[in-house]
Design brief:
The protein has 95 residues and is mostly helical. It has one domain. It is 91% helix and 0% strand. It has helices spanning 4-30, 34-63, 66-94. Helix 1 packs antiparallel against helix 2 (34-63). The chain is elongated. The model has no long low-confidence stretch (mean pLDDT 81).
Length: 95
Amino acid sequence: MIDRKVYIEKMKAKMDEWDADLEKLQAKTESAQADIKLHYEEQMERLKQQQDEAREMLSKMTDASESAWEDMRKGMETAWEATSKAFMDAYSRFK
């Protein structure tokens, strides 16, 4: 069984990494040409939405009962993978 506190701390650290990545992407968006800038801004908005959803899920996990914890962790893993992929895809497009 995965230790709940360790898992939550790991997820919080990853959220901090995503915050830093978003700041880098935002800087690239601001320096982009007008036609590309709109596309970048749309991607940024989707990333922020996914991050907000992951942050909300993490908050619920923190407050979850022990019986609900394991089911929520599995759901978080799925959401985490999708958000990580979205970040990697966006980051590769911004280069």
